[in-house]
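We were asked to recover a plausible sequence for a given structure. The inputs and outputs are reproduced exactly as logged, with field labels preserved.

PROBLEM: sequence recovery
POSITIONS: 193
GIVEN STRUCTURE:
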């Protein structure tokens, strides 16, 4: 049974500091502990913020030098791991005592005894790329829509595709007897019904 002393009830993202090069080990060990103790409802997720970068390297093949591109994953914040958890005495203790973890960022029990770590705000979590809020739109590909803003204002069309990341849609509009594809912002389109 989980110790719920000091439970806030809501899971938040916290930043933990690790020894350099221990990020993957800390994340893996933490998830193993969570699974073994069946704490999936208390420690929900562990992430290491990374980005994929294309690098050009010179390699020798058969005595000939060639430029080769390869994708490499880099840690955005070496020495840090993000944990989404409900802060309790038990979860704090588990995270804090995971081998390779040096403590929570924003927490210093030497200065303020019995202080709790400070969670990331929603804006900070989005900035770190750990939690993206997906927007729901009232239409999908294949549906008829009306443009309510921009240069295509007032035109009706059919949605061909939606790019949620860029927040745009490609729609086919009947203009002057011809079918024209146009890219519009998702916020400038509403369902026709």
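RECOVERED SEQUENCE:
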């Amino acid at each position: 049974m989980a110790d719920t002393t000091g439970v806030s009830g809501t899971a938040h993202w916290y930043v933990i500091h690790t020894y350099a090069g221990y990020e993957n080990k800390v994340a893996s060990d933490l998830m193993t502990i969570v699974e073994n103790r069946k704490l999936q409802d208390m420690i929900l997720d562990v992430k290491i913020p990374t980005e994929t970068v294309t690098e050009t390297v010179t390699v020798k093949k058969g005595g000939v030098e060639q430029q080769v591109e390869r994708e490499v994953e880099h840690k955005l914040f070496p020495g840090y791991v993000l944990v989404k958890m409900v802060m309790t005495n038990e979860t704090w203790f588990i995270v804090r005592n995971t081998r390779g973890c040096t403590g929570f960022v924003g927490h210093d029990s030497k200065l303020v005894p019995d202080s709790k770590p400070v969670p990331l705000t929603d804006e900070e979590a989005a900035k770190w790329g750990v939690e993206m809020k997906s927007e729901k739109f009232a239409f999908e590909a294949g549906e008829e829509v009306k443009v309510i803003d921009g240069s295509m204002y007032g035109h009706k069309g059919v949605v061909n595709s939606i790019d949620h990341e860029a927040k745009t849609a490609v729609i086919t509009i009947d203009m002057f007897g011809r079918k024209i594809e146009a890219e519009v912002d998702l916020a400038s389109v509403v369902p026709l019904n």
